[in-house]
C-alpha cells in the first residue's frame, strides 16, 4: 500500500476510496498543520493531498525524500514551490475546471451585492435602522444591466464571467497576457481600468500579478466603479484599496480573497460600508467541493500508480 498524508477531511467518501489502496495519515483539524508537524509527517510519505492553506516550500520538499506526488485540492498552486518540486521529480496535480462555474456565480453575486448594496441593506434591517418605509433617495445603488465589465485574466473563470455578463447585456472588455477568441474587446490594463464600471480580477497569482492592482492603478478607475476580486488576495494591494475606498476614488468593492487569510479582525476593511466581504467562498458549493475531492484523490492515485493524472501542473 502507498503511504500518504492528507491535510484535511474531504467531503464525500473519497478518503474511503483512498483507504482501500493507501495507508492514510490524516490531519483532522480544520486549522492547517504547523510547519514542523507537516515536515515530521511528510518525510516518509509516497504522496500528499494538501489544500491551499498548507505552504509546501523547499524545506518541506527536501525532507520528503520518498515523495512522488503532491495533489492539491485547489485550482491555484502558488502555495507550492512547484518548480523546485518538479526539479526533484515530484508530480504536482490540481483541480481546475470543476470550480469554474461556482466561482463565476460568486463573482456575479459580489457584483450585485456591491452595486445594489444588498449586504448593507441586510445590516440596516438587522440593526433596527430601517425607520421609514420608503423614500426616493433611500439607499440608492448602481445598476448592473448594460454597464461595462472589465475582466482581468481571460482563463476559465474569466470566460465564465463573460457568459454571465452577456445575460446582463453588458459591454465586456478584457485584459490578458494573450488575446483570446472571445466575444469581448481587448484593452490594455490602464484603458480597461479607465473604462470599466466593474473591474473583475480573475488572474492567477505570480511574480507578474503580485500587487498588479496598486495605488496608481486604482486611481485610474472611475469614481462610480467597483472592484471585484475572487481570485487571489495578493493581486490587489490591500492598503491601497482601503485608501481608495475610504477616500472615494472608487464606489465600492466585493472581496472573497485577501492578502492575509483569515482577514485580521482589526482590518480597516471590516468597518467600511462600501465593501462586501466573503470568506473565500468561491468554490464553496456542495457539488463543487465534492467534485474537487474526487479529482484530487484520483489525481493522487493515478500518479502514485505511474499513470497520467487528470490534471497535472507543467512548465
Automatic annotation (TrEMBL):
GO CC, one annotated term: cytosol
Any Pfam family hit: 2-Hacid_dh
Keywords in alphabetical order: Oxidoreductase
SUPFAM superfamilies from the UniProt entry: Formate/glycerate dehydrogenase catalytic domain-like, NAD(P)-binding Rossmann-fold domains
One Gene Ontology MF term: glyoxylate reductase (NADPH) activity
Protein name listed in UniProt: 2-ketogluconate reductase
Start and end residues of each D-isomer specific 2-hydroxyacid dehydrogenase NAD-binding domain: 108-282
Domain D-isomer specific 2-hydroxyacid dehydrogenase catalytic residue range list: 4-313
Protein family per UniProt: Belongs to the D-isomer specific 2-hydroxyacid dehydrogenase family.
Amino acid at each position: 500500500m502507498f503511504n500518504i498524508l492528507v491535510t484535511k477531511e474531504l467531503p464525500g467518501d473519497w478518503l474511503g476510496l483512498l483507504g482501500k489502496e493507501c495507508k492514510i495519515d490524516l490531519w483532522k483539524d480544520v486549522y492547517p498543520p504547523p510547519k514542523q508537524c507537516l515536515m515530521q509527517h511528510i518525510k516518509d510519505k509516497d504522496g500528499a493531498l494538501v489544500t491551499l492553506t498548507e505552504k509546501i516550500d523547499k524545506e518541506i520538499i527536501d525532507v520528503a525524500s520518498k515523495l512522488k506526488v503532491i495533489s492539491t485540492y485547489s485550482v491555484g498552486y502558488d502555495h507550492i514551490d512547484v518548480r523546485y518540486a518538479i526539479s526533484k521529480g515530484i508530480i504536482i496535480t490540481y483541480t481546475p475546471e470543476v470550480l469554474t462555474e461556482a466561482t463565476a456565480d460568486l463573482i456575479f453575486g459580489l457584483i450585485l451585492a456591491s452595486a445594489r448594496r444588498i449586504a448593507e441593506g441586510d445590516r440596516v434591517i438587522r440593526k433596527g435602522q430601517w425607520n421609514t418605509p420608503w423614500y426616493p433617495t433611500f439607499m440608492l445603488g448602481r445598476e448592473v444591466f448594460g454597464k461595462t465589465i472589465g475582466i482581468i485574466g481571460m482563463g476559465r473563470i474569466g470566460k465564465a464571467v463573460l457568459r454571465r455578463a452577456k445575460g446582463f447585456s453588458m459591454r465586456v472588455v478584457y485584459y490578458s497576457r494573450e488575446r483570446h477568441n472571445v466575444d469581448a474587446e481587448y484593452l490594455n490594463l490602464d484603458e480597461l481600468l479607465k473604462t470599466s464600471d466593474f473591474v473583475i480580477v480573475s488572474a492567477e497569482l505570480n511574480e507578474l500579478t503580485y500587487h498588479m492592482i496598486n495605488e496608481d492603478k486604482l486611481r485610474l478607475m472611475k469614481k462610480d466603479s467597483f472592484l471585484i476580486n475572487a481570485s487571489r488576495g495578493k493581486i490587489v494591494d490591500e492598503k491601497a484599496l482601503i485608501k481608495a475606498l475610504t477616500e472615494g476614488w472608487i464606489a465600492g468593492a466585493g472581496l472573497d480573497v485577501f492578502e492575509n487569510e483569515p482577514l485580521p479582525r482589526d482590518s480597516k476593511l471590516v468597518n467600511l460600508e462600501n465593501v462586501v466581504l466573503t470568506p473565500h467562498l468561491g468554490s464553496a458549493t456542495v457539488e463543487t467541493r465534492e467534485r474537487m475531492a474526487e479529482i484530487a484523490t484520483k489525481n493522487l492515485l493515478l500518479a502514485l500508480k505511474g499513470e497520467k493524472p487528470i490534471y497535472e501542473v507543467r512548465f
